[in-house]
């Protein structure tokens, strides 16, 4: 059976990708942020996962407000980059994994999560920045990726508890797959931020640290929030916490927290990094 080795939650701010492409990691603004990542990269190197299932949000590039799936899952052999406004990013495409994608899709619909299935899907910084953070120099072509987009951009959005249950259904589907693949699950985005409006620049460090504490062993404390609570506490884009909750939902059994770090601000955001290993990890 396929194994879930653990979950990684990380910020996906586009400026991170720009800083890496320009080689700015050791400059004063970025140093502390990037210094948190090597232990997580080393864990990935030791574990050698075959597949990354990535919960992210599409920022209106593949799915704009006129047609917005609540939950969308990729079933393509390759995912090309979206144009984020500066032309199509000159970074490698992302490798897909169609067999496990279809297994997850079938299991989800069987268990009453009626997802949008995408046999073509462009991906944005919500997915490619975390991949580049884990495999610098855009060296992520070897890892097969299953992108799963959760609507965090337009109301109505799925609730935190629903995102957690969605992640749980995906975890169950992965664990029921007859292959022997090793899978790592990502939740990208967050933590508190508000990019526009009257509270633009709003960050709530205390709330971010609370979320990182509770997500380990007490996710019930987080899934009782409404999306309105998240907007109030963490800013309008703070609902990106829902991707972290989907990742956490996919994990089962005793978890070992191998890494937690938090840095603020990066761009307009409280930037968190967390690694939760399952007992399936070596
Ligand atoms: C920023 C954060 C995001 O989550 C995002 O999608 C885009 C920009 C930022 O803080 O700059
Ligand atoms: Fe975002």
What's the helix count? Answer: 10
Structural class: alpha/beta
Envelope shape = globular
Low-confidence spans: none
Domain Extradiol ring-cleavage dioxygenase class III enzyme subunit B: 8-269
GO molecular function: dioxygenase activity
Protein name: Class III extradiol dioxygenase family protein
Keywords: Dioxygenase, Oxidoreductase
Account of the protein in words:
- This is Class III extradiol dioxygenase family protein.
- InterPro entries: Xdiol_dOase_suB.
- Residues 8-269 form the Extradiol ring-cleavage dioxygenase class III enzyme subunit B domain.
- Keywords: Dioxygenase, Oxidoreductase.
- This protein is α/β, with parallel strands linked by helices and 282 residues long.
- The chain has a single domain (3-277), classed as Protocatechuate 4,5-dioxygenase, Chain B, CATH 3.40.830.10.
- It has helices spanning 14-21, 31-35, 38-47, 98-110, 125-134, 160-175, 205-217, 220-223, 227-234, 241-250; strands at 3-10, 51-56, 71-74, 78-79, 94-95, 116-118, 144-150, 182-188, 256-266, 269-277.
- The chain is globular, with a radius of gyration of 17 Å.
- The model has no long low-confidence stretch (mean pLDDT 97).
- Fe (iii) ion (FE) binds at residues 12, 59, 126, 189, 237, 240.
């Amino acid at each position: 059976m396929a194994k879930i080795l653990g979950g990684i939650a990380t910020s996906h701010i586009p400026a991170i990708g720009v800083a890496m492409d320009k080689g700015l990691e050791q400059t004063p603004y970025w140093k502390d942020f990037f210094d948190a990542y090597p232990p997580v990269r080393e864990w990935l190197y030791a574990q050698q996962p075959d597949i990354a299932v990535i919960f992210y949000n599409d920022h209106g590039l593949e799915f704009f407000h006129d047609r917005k799936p609540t939950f969308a899952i990729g079933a393509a052999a390759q995912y090309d980059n979206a144009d984020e406004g500066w032309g199509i990013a000159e970074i490698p495409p992302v490798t897909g994994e169609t067999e496990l994608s279809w297994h997850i899709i079938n299991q989800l619909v069987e268990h009453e999560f009626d997802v949008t299935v995408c046999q073509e899907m462009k991906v944005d910084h919500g997915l490619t920045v975390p991949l580049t953070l884990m495999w610098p120099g855009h060296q992520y072509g070897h890892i097969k990726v299953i992108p799963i987009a959760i609507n965090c951009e337009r109301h109505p959005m799925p609730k935190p508890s629903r995102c957690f249950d969605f992640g749980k259904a995906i975890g169950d589907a992965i664990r029921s797959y007859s292959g022997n693949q090793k899978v790592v699950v990502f939740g990208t985005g967050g933590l508190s931020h508000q990019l526009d409006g009257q509270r633009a620049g709003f960050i709530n460090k205390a709330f971010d640290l609370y979320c990182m504490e509770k997500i380990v062993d007490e996710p019930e404390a987080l899934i009782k929030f409404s999306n309105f609570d998240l907007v109030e506490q963490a800013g309008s884009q703070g609902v990106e916490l829902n991707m972290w909750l989907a990742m956490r939902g996919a994990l089962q059994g005793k978890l070992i927290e191998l890494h937690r770090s938090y840095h603020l601000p990066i761009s307009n955001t409280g930037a968190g990094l967390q690694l939760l290993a399952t007992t399936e990890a070596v």
